[in-house]
Amino acid sequence: MSTLDALVQIIANGVKDIQSKSAERGMPYPTPDTPLSPESEKLQSDLATDAAPVIAAAWQLIATLKRPHIYFLELALSSFLSGSISVAEAAYVPDVLREAGTKGLHVNEIAAVRNVDAGKLGRILRHLTSWHIFEEVAPDVFRNNRISSALCTGKPVQEMLESPIDRWDDTNGVAALVSLTGDFNQRGNAFLAEHLLDPATGHSQEPNEAAWQRAMRTNLVSFEWMELPEHALELRKFSIGMRATTSPDSDIIATRGFEWESLPSGNLVIDVGGGVGSLAMALAKAHKHLRYVVQDRHAVAKEGERLWKATVPGFVENCIPIKDADVFILRHILHNWSDKYASKILSRLRDAAQPATKLVVMDNIVDYMCRDSGAVAEITGAARSQAPEPLLPYADSAAGSIYSLDICMMCCANCQERTLGHFVELLKSTGWKLERVCRFESPLSQQLICSPL
């Protein structure tokens, strides 16, 4: 069987299987025309594993059918997609169209809300529509579809206009995260080649010597930059955007993976660099017998205290000196630091650990793009089932966001996502042993359960 035939067969069989499983649940599999709803989102989430090889085959089929120079050119030009998404979010387009309803709205009226040039905004929305984000129902008349609806905050547009900095409050954080990624993280991307080829910066592991600093003409680490008074919007956006990485599946994180329920009553769980406490909040609701401390920078901690008092009043108490931690959590922390600084963090935690202390690292694991994972495959939970040839080894890695996020982290702070082999070496060098890996379906992070060496 030829590669083309194999790819087409994977797509055809996979779609048929997805449709059958959807029918068993009493609803058709959603398309871009299907309204966004909790039920349809759950269906897609439940069938994500089934959809992964179909998506992988579709991407590989595109790469196979297109001429190489056309394929390269289109990928290079796709970098402008992020800018277009940023404009749509900043102009409140998803919520403006939500209020307009299914009939849609002329771009002149959409643009008037934020005083944007209508001709330019129309071109941007048409660009997004070509990627199945929004729908053009008549010349220059646009409406939301399922995908663009995911950017809605659900708030009245007038309220957003009156207080732009509060527009992401009490949302799932998706719009804030998308805005952060497009408007903040991509700035360094334009300077990446220049930065890496510069002998003065290309080999740096310093968090304030990344391509983003070159783009922004600053020597501040991105976190310090966001804490300046004039960047309050970016700080709020970051704090709420991080909620999107936990909130949709907080019940899964709190009830699967590490055995939180087996910890003795009163055990102390330290969420190191825990942001506004989204993860700790999910754990506290499910496991009330444990004690929790969230540690982060002062500005972020203040925002977290405000969120907790509004969401779960009565949980927040004054901090006390931390002694005898039973579990350390590092969720999306190590990927914020180069090996030089990640080693310092892990070493400090090792110095503070008791013999029975556990370290739970919640982070992405970058899969190798070969079928032999080496010795790390022997670690409990490390091995993953592989996709059939001619697909890449892991179906959910095809054009996967983790690889893009890895480059994003490189641009922002000289940090990175890591392979499992890299994690093993880093942990071992700082006095930790990786005991096992608790696997979760993408986009949830994996859990690396570690103990002191």
UniProtKB/TrEMBL annotation:
GO BP field: methylation
Domain O-methyltransferase C-terminal: 249-369
One GO molecular-function entry: O-methyltransferase activity
Bilayer-crossing regions: none
PROSITE patterns noted in UniProt: SAM_OMT_II
Pfam family, one: Methyltransf_2
InterPro entries in the record: COMT-like, COMT_C, SAM-dependent_MTases_sf, WH-like_DNA-bd_sf, WH_DNA-bd_sf
Keywords: Methyltransferase, S-adenosyl-L-methionine, Transferase
Positions of region (Disordered): 22-41
This protein's record includes keyword S-adenosyl-L-methionine: yes
Domain of life: Eukaryota
Protein name per Swiss-Prot or TrEMBL: O-methyltransferase C-terminal domain-containing protein
